[in-house]
Each structure stands twice: as structure tokens, then as C-alpha cells.
Amino acid sequence: MIKRTINFFKNRNIEIASLIGLIVIWQLVADYVVQRTLFLPSFTEVISALVRIIETGVLFTDIQTSLLHFGIGIGSALIVGIPIGVIMGWFTLGNRIFDPIVEILRPIPPLAWIPFALIWLGLTHTAAGFVVFVGAVFPIVINTYTGFKSTSRIYVEAAKVLGCVRDRDLISKVAFPSSMPSITAGIRIGMGVGWMCLVAAELFGVSRFGLGYKIWFHYSLHQMDFVLTYMLILGIIGLLIDKGFRFVVDTYLLKWRKGVVV
Amino acid sequence: MGTLEIKLSKSFEKDKSKTTVALEDVELTVKDGDFLCIIGPSGCGKTTLLRLVAGLDEPTSGNIALDGKRIMGPDSRKGMVFQEYSLFPWRTVIRNVSFGLEMQGKEKEESNEIARRYLKLVGLEQFETSYPHELSGGMRQRVAIARALANNPEILLMDEPFGSLDAQTRNALQIELLDIWKKEHLTILFVTHSVDEAVFLADKIAVMSRRPGKIKEVVEVELERPRDRTSPEANRIRTNILKKLEKERKGD
User: Fold this and answer.
1) What is the complex's ipTM, to 2 decimals?
2) Residue B181: CATH number of its domain
3) Which of A155, A161, A166, A170 to mutate to test the interface with B (most CBs of B within 10 A)?
């Protein structure tokens, strides 16, 4: 374990030096050039802000709340997006039905849905989740569709001569697994977009907690050290979600592609 | 059992005004236990014919009967090995072989047992947990054969299955296929463009004409098995078939 940790630092020495360099420059610029917390809080001020919100425990409530919004959004995007992508990709009629709808709705920026989210769902967690949903659902639909469309004919025919002839079986046993790389890529993109929509979704006070909400809350108090702290936390959690998802995908869903050069 | 009777025509409609006749009045009988090779100039519709037998396409007129029952679509009575690598890359070797059994609704234990038997038949029992991309081309085609056989089909259709393999692997697989054919009492319909391959493998060689494809002639190969690729008799048959093909290519 220790050896692995040492090795990690050895292999990543340049990356780590780069980050430390950034922090040092940031601290120096904040202390000696800008000299105003309002414009640029220093690294140490951010750290003490971080300690404050950890001590009071408020950070954890914020993270929980944001993950709740994110979870509602991504969960419903998966439940809605994947089946629509499957129908569009597998059935020509399905494509003709859904394609115009998707193509008209897709270019609308997710944030433009906020007024309706609030009218329909009120100041609730679901309203914030809805905005995340709108951001996440289209990449999932499009990638599922593309994955299904590019299912190799040879696999479908091989399955058919092995007695797998019903659409239901062909979808679940052939098209779905063969589209998995594309679908998971779509989910990753969707989660990225959804995470970005989160800040805006929480802006309108659907809850008194949440990482995005806190950015605006502290901004209104001109506590820019807290604003920057929450910004960094948003970045780090977004990164962790993506890494975690990639790990799950590579270990379980796409194990069969290990070693394949794409 | 596996007697196949073919009597059909097939044309493709490119657009409303233009139809291409791919197969015209093709008549062919494959008897139970036969090893029949179809050979012909490229574009003559060999693969089309095989796809029709597999049920992947429908004849424009006429029909195909397997043991007296008309072929209406793909099902597990016909096993097929494709020229391209057709193993499911997301499934391990054994799960590829047991795919058809799974579709029949067999229990996992039972299908694994059957799958193992066929993997052993093609000599790959130690690779059951590998994924296809970890196998060489020849091994993949062996697994594909095992997968087709695990379904216990009445006829095995092979569409240039060794076409993309190197010459040595190809020879080795031909010998293995003959072993399996004998051991399992299979009926095999084999499409190839290689005269060498046809003469080495088949009881009967159906020579097709160029488009629109017809069966020109069925040549009986009465060579003793195991065959010697370089024997004078084999050479004589090869020359004979090559001549017929050359005539077809030029158009008599």
C-alpha cells in the first residue's frame, strides 16, 4: 500500500509539481498583487473557508442536497433517454416518430427550461432535478441511438441463425451489449452536462442547501472566499463522479474491451 | 437428419425500374450426411444462396425444404459460420458457444456442459473464459464452429469460413472440420471460391455459373479419405473444375 502510494507520487511528479506551482503563484498573486479578497481570495483563505464549512457540517448537507438533485436528474434521464434511444435506433418507425421531437427540443439550452421547471414543479428538489434531466437526457438519447444504429449486421445475423429472432431478444442480447461503449460514453457526457446545469438549477432557491445554491448565497454576502471554495468543490466532485463512473464501466460493463485498441 | 432440397429464384430490386436476377432456377439437393461445396466465379450468388438456406433472405420464387419442412426464416435447425468474425465480442468464449442454447431456454448448467463438449471438440476447452479479442483468427473460427454446432443443427452452412485465415491455419482447420464432420455425422453446405479447398473437403462440388447464378454441374469427388492434396487424382479433378470455372468466367 505504502509502496503503491510512493509509486503514484513518483509517476505523477510533474502533475503534482504543476498543481503546487499553481497554488504558489495563486497565493503570491492574491497576497501581493491583487490584495483584495473580494477580487481574488488567496489559497489560505479558501482553506480556512473550507475548514469552516467542514466544522459546521454544512458542506455535507450541501453535497447531499446537490447529489440528490443530480441523482434525480440523471436517474430520470437514464430511464427516459435509453428507451427512447433504443426505439429510435432499432425501429425505423420509432425513429421517424421521435426524431423530429428530439431535434426540435435538443437545441433549447437546458437553463431555458428553468421557468417551466419552477411553474410545474415549484421550489422543489424535483424542479432542480428536472433541469439536470434536460441537460443529461439528450446526449444519452443520441448516443444510445447511434450505438444501436451502428450495431454490426453480422452480430444480428449470427444471433438470428442461433435462434435469437424476436426483436426483444435481439435488442437485449445483441444490440444493447454491442452498443454499450456508445451508451456509456453518452451517459458520461450527459452527467457532465447535468453537473454543469446543477449550479443554475439551484440558483432559484429550491432548497437552502446545495453546492450551486451556496455559490449564489455567499456571493450575495460578498464572501468570495466561500464562493471560490464551493466552486472548487463542484469541480472536484464532478471529477470524482466521472472517475467513479469510468471505473465502474471499465471494470464491469466493458470488461470485454480491455486490451482492445480502439 | 438433414436433407436439403433447393428449388428457387432470387432477384433484388435496386429501385423500381431495375431488378437484378441473382439466382435463376437454382436446383440443388444436399443429402443427409453430405459434404457439399458450392463454388463459382465471384458475384455469382453463392453467398446469397447460403443466406437463403439460412433463412436470412427470402427467395423471390420457389422454396427450400429441410427434411421436407419449408424454411420460413432463421432458426436453430440451420447452423451458420460466417466469413467475417461473428463471435459476440462482449461474451466470453463459453458464453458465445452457449448463446443458442440459452435462447432455447436451457438451464445454465446444462448449456455450459454442452458448450464445453463442443469447445473440447474444437480443441479450445482451456479458453472458455477468454474474450474473442484475445483469440487468433483461426481460434475464433473454431469457436464459431463450436457455437453453430452446440445448437445441434440439422445442417451446417459455412460461408467461406476460412477465407480470411492464413494458408497454414486454413489447412489445419480443414482437417479439423473433416474430423468433426465424421464424428458428429453432419450435413455440411460449404461455400468457397477456392478449388483446392473444395476438392479437399467435399463429396460433391456444385459449380455455379456467373450471374444470374445457376447450378451448372454437380461434380462427385470420389477420392478416398484422408485425402492427399497433391495426388494426381486430386489434381485431375482440380484441373477439371478450374476449366469449367474459366469457361464460366469468360462466358461460353
Assistant:
1) 0.91
2) 3.40.50.300
3) A161
